[in-house]
Specification:
The radius of gyration is 23 Å and the shape is globular. The protein folds into three domains: 3-133, Methylthiotransferase, N-terminal domain (Rossmann fold, 3-Layer(aba) Sandwich); 157-398, pyruvate-formate lyase- activating enzyme (Alpha-Beta Horseshoe); 404-470, Nucleic acid-binding proteins (OB fold (Dihydrolipoamide Acetyltransferase, E2P), Beta Barrel), CATH 2.40.50.140. It is built from 13 helices and 19 strands. With 471 residues, it is an alpha/beta fold. It has a six-stranded parallel β-sheet, sandwiched between helices. Strands 7-10-11-12-13-14 form a six-stranded parallel β-sheet. The two termini are 40 Å apart.
């Protein structure tokens, strides 16, 4: 039996691709094992969003090759590079990773990985031969409900990729060139997948894509201008999808991730407010607030639009927790731009916030712009924003003390609230005896920076230990 080990890097969208590949490997009768050193084939599913992601991916490839060379038994081991870095750089990497890699597969080969492996194992590669590339042009694939898939997340939560690709012209981003134009799944397909996941015991459905709020808009007869915010009163496929998911039987959360601000509408705000299973949490990367920077980034929104949108969201969805991300150090950013951004963060007090230092990515328009900023300038601005947010986060956490929250227990002693997405947000430390993978109601007793401390309702503080103390 052929054994395969898969190393999955990058975002949740890439993780879904890995899950689909593993599903097809199982269907083909191959065995997937965690130990790369024991496998006949190693697949490295790579990320290439920023330079550090590319460096991490190459580091894993070199490590696999080094270990392969040390083992006489597995000198014939095949190494396949998949994912965004392969899709973007396979031609360049073919020479620089000539000895380390046997084949490159792209985003459209996730469902044909098994026959590709059989082909590689059935042939002997000449020493001078270049790695085989199975990539054919820009990606057009989109996963559907009936594709085999083996989930790599804990049994109580799952990611559902509702669309693939992106139509936005952001000057800092390479993703549209890698993953192609936006392509939505059908509502029926997403609902069928969600229904099956809930039957399997999933308690949290995380809806993901490059731009979740553009879901279904690519199928409109009259497609919206991608550079113009949508009619705020118009319904969308996303609102229909959320209502159908909310109507499914079962006790679970629906979490909306990766929403672009240009495509929010009043109808979407109403839908979230009226659907109790949709988590009171949204992820809405704003990237900046200065009109000067939003224009250079080609974000299709203005500072006034963003401020009004945040106001409407908070007014329309009581108790909403808003997560956003910003980029500092983009070419041409001035101290005045950063001052405006800091004032906006201080005024808005986002419940969750992340900051990225601009990365000059090859192939983007931003990389060619004048007035690139020095790394030390980017670092100073990053530290300034993070220090500000840490103060805000402490106040947000303090406001939770004495409140009762519903949490989903992730592992012994650790849970997440409705305002915390997997892997990226804070934790709620709870008694270790609470059942993993189940909802519990707890009372917040304290906090530490971004994390909360809690007890089951009715339990006294002297009778429990948080996970940190028990380790």
């Amino acid at each position: 039996m052929v054994t395969v080990s898969l190393i999955s890097l990058g975002c949740a969208k890439n993780l879904v691709d890995s899950e689909i590949m593993i599903g097809h490997l199982h269907q083909a009768g191959m065995r997937v094992i965690p130990e790369a050193e024991k496998a006949d084939v190693v697949i490295v599913n790579t990320c290439s969003f920023i330079d550090s992601s590319k460096e991490e991916s190459i580091g894993h490839i070199l490590e696999v090759h080094q270990n392969r060379g040390l083992r006489k038994r597995h000198r014939g081991q095949k190494v396949i590079v998949a994912g965004c870095m392969a899709q973007r750089f396979s031609q360049d990497l073919s020479s620089s990773l000539h000895d380390e890699v046997d084949a490159f597969i792209g985003l459209d080969q996730v469902t044909t990985v098994a026959p590709i492996i059989e082909k590689l194992l059935g042939q002997v590669r000449a020493k001078e031969a270049a790695p085989v590339s199975f990539i054919e042009g820009r990606s057009t694939y989109i996963p559907d409900y009936d594709t085999p898939r083996f989930r790599l997340t804990p049994k109580h939560f799952a990611y559902i990729k509702i669309a693939e690709g992106c139509n936005h012209p952001c000057t800092f981003c390479i993703i549209p060139q890698i993953r192609g134009r936006h392509r939505s799944r059908t509502i029926a397909s997403v609902v069928a997948e969600a229904r099956q996941l809930v039957k399997e015991g999933v308690k949290e459905l995380n809806l993901i894509s490059q731009d979740t709020t553009f879901f279904g808009m690519d199928t409109w007869d009259e497609r919206p201008n991608p550079r113009t915010p949508v009619d705020s009163s118009r319904g969308s496929a996303l609102t229909t999808l959320l209502r159908e998911l909310n109507a499914l039987e079962g006790d679970f959360w629906i979490r909306l991730l990766y929403t672009h601000p240009a495509h929010w509408s009043d109808e979407l705000i109403r839908t979230i407010a009226e659907c109790p299973k949709v988590a009171r949490y949204i992820d809405i990367p704003l990237q900046h607030i200065s009109d000067h920077m939003l224009g250079r980034m080609q974000r299709e929104t203005s500072g006034a639009y963003i401020r009004d949108l945040i106001r409407r969201i908070r007014a329309g969805i009581p108790g909403i927790a808003i997560r956003t991300t910003f980029i500092v150090g983009f070419p041409g950013e001035t101290e005045a731009d950063v001052d405006e951004l800091c004032a906006f963060i201080h005024e808005t007090k986002f419940e969750r916030l992340g900051v990225f230092r601009y990365s000059q990515e090859e192939g983007t328009r931003g990389a060619k712009m004048d007035h690139q900023l020095a790394p030390k300038v980017k670092a100073a601005r990053w530290h300034r924003l993070m220090a500000l947010q840490k103060e805000i986060a402490a106040k947000v956490s303090a406001s939770q003390v004495h409140q009762t929250l519903r949490v989903l227990v992730e592992e012994p002693g650790v849970a997440r609230g409705e305002a915390d997405a997997p892997d990226i947000d804070g934790r709620v430390y709870v008694p270790r005896e609470l059942p993993v993978g189940e909802f519990s109601r707890v009372k917040i007793t304290g906090y530490h920076d971004y994390d909360l401390l809690a007890l089951p309702t009715g339990q006294k503080p002297a009778t429990w230990k948080i996970a940190k103390q028990a380790q």
